[in-house]
Amino acid sequence: MAACRFRCPFSGVCLAILVGMALQDLRAEVGLKTRIRGAYYSVLQNTDLPFKTNITETMQERFEIDHTPDSFEYAAVAVALLSLLMGLVHGNLEEIQLPILLGGVLFLRAKYIVPHLANLLKKKANTGEVTEVRVFMCIMALALVTLLYVHMRGLQSNTGSFCYPVTALLLSLVLGFKVQDVIADNLSTSDWLYKGRYYKELNAANYGLDKTYEAMAALIAIALLYKLVRHRHIILDIVSWIPVGGAVFLYVEKFKPEVAMLKEISTKYKGTDQKAVRQEKCEEVLENLKQINVQMAGAIALALLLTFVACSVYTSKASDASKKKEDEKTTKVQRKG
């Protein structure tokens, strides 16, 4: 049992959310055509973030660096600070050094990816730039997945109070996908046309990537079923299923129909003379998607919280049972002696 016990994996879960955001970008890189990728990045890059202008001006004036931070970098900094805090609480070097490793990932992203995104947004990227962005997106995603694996290994502890949080990590990846959508809804300054393309095209991506949510839901269901069979703590397992089921319901019954409605509107109201009607109807659908995404993110976050509680309870019970067996064994030895 000691080998699969962990300190509070909060920093690992936060890192998994960042990995989910990176995988969402990779999903766009692999599944979308070049011109559509420009629309995708336009929505996520053109954001109204706190202190964004001040940070940009400071970097230009003091360090002579022409760089504007984006939502992914904000998220990475937040994960780094949380990991540093948890590392100080745990006295754990792996968590304390995560900000340095994430800084290296952000440096490579700023050097090899971000400059080419500007040309993608302006539709001026040549074939070499398009390929380079895709290659480095793959490398960055792989680096973050590897970093997550190493980080979780570093959280292992014989005195930890959590079992291996497989379900929590899977939920965090999906939450990372949804965080990107929430950013697009609430922080992006792009107009209705680009936001509509963001949803339509990403949810019709090639190579089966339009079924990403379905695949992740299947993996989470398998993980939850394994927990139910392995640990047999029926109440906590059933409670964990409720918000997951809610998120699935919202996706199937609300999210997908609204995305399909965007496609239908684009087909039905074509041409310049229909633009005003198309805009009005698209904005109405986008407002609905905005609310649905917040609800889905909330349901996933609740499931994540319940999974944390379940992980702790499972390990505590297993630890108590193991201690009881050891005490009984010691008592028997003493009686024989």
Can you walk through the features of this model?
The protein is mainly alpha-helical. It is built from twelve helices and no strands. Helix content is 80%, strand content 0%. Helix 2 (34-45) crosses helix 9 (192-202) and helix 5 (93-112) packs antiparallel against helix 7 (127-154). The longest helix is centred in the C-terminal third of the chain and has 62 residues, at 275-336. The model has no long low-confidence stretch (mean pLDDT 85).
Average of the residue pLDDT scores: 85
Distance between the termini: 29 Å
Structural class: mainly alpha
Helix content: over 70%
Question: Sheet bearing the most strands, described?
Answer: none
List the uncertain runs.
none
Count of extended strands: 0
Rg over CA atoms, rounded to whole Å, is 23 Å
Helix-strand topology string: HHHHHHHHHHHH
The gross shape turns out to be: globular
Strand content: under 5%
**What is the number of helices?**
12
